[in-house]
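so the lab meeting is tmrw and i was supposed to have these ready like two days ago... anyway. pasting both below. for each one the top line is the aa sequence and the line under it is the structure tokens. i havent really looked at them closely yet so no promises
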Amino acid sequence: GALWQGKGYNTSLTGGARLEAYGFEVTVKPQVSFSQNREFELMTSVTSSPYGYYQSGIDLPQRFGDDSLKTFDWGDTEIRWSWRTLTFGAGFQSPWLGPAWLNPMLGSNNAPSYPKIDAGLRRTAVHLPWLGWYVGDIEGRIWLGRLSESDYFDSNPDNNYRLLTAMSASFAPSFIPGLTLGVNRIFITGLHFG
């Protein structure tokens, strides 16, 4: 989540509530965190901040400033409405998509949440017409989200936000239990205001 696990003492607390009625699901699950953020030796940054990354083009701070950090994050807070297999949501809940070498780059909760809206199909059983044979389950979702740049990347205010456009679709065949085939696609483009 939003916890920066820097040097020293780190802690994160979360709690929440969920209400389901009339096709709506309201989840409130924020996170508060604290990081002592003690000093350690940094590699030479290629950004305008001494805390930025040591390779260009990546917004991955080595350290978040000199002071301790107190953070509030909306975490898995969201509102969702579903009708049969259709679902529509708005909030901050983090999608989990795909494996990766260092971090699940396609989506996970390894960073602060971001605001998003989505629409899709919940996991749905598929039966062949006329025969009634169960062939498996399908699931799909598309979403739009707004990503924010850290304070340690660059000093250009024109590129502080990015639009994340994504889709995910999967099929779990009934004849191979435990197998799920999926396809994911994510686009990140700049947002300019003014």
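ok protien two:
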Amino acid sequence: QVQSTLFVDFFRVLGTFFRKPAIAVGIAYLLLYRFPEAQLLKLAAPFLLDPVEAGGLGLSTREVGVAYGTVGLIALTVGGIVGGLLIARFGLKACLWPLVWVMHLPNLVFLAMALWPPQQLWVVSTALAMEQFGYGVGFAAYLMVMILIAEGPHKTAHYAICTGFMALGMMLPGFWSGWLQDQLGYVGFFTWVMVAAIPSFVMTALIRVPEGFGRREPAA
């Protein structure tokens, strides 16, 4: 009896999620906002490790650990904090477009490194820090949209459903990333990553954010 009730409750809550206003746009946003990053992240480490004659940067695993695993991680964390502070100060609606630009434009550093492979580790680290910082800033907007979509009854369960679509949006584009890079080479692949940002901009234009959502009200 308990299992049957839980089963019914599960589908009832799931049904309320898919009956939310403009939920199709919300789901498309969750799937497409990180469309370029979902492909880029699959090839970032191979690009750094592959030899120069194969189009990569020829870094050692230690150098990748420093540049991507340490410097990049710090920049990602700082970017997330900065993005959160901006949204708390100005609200999600005011920040949505600036943050989507900040998220995707730094992907150009991978194209630049593929075209003109840097020789110094500090140059690679700086470029990766820029890209990861931008990703962190833009991801803060993504998380706030997830909270917006989950608003209302069953918000905890609906937020969990949003995280499932978030994971799906990263998994599906990753399926063809390696094959695509084999066909295009690194320069062609990173050029494609820039073009792949178009769906993200389209979904940003379609999502509707209430005035003041996410803004922290000043203490009385």
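from a quick look at the 2nd one: The chain has a mean pLDDT of 91. The longest helix spans residues 155-195. will dig more after coffe
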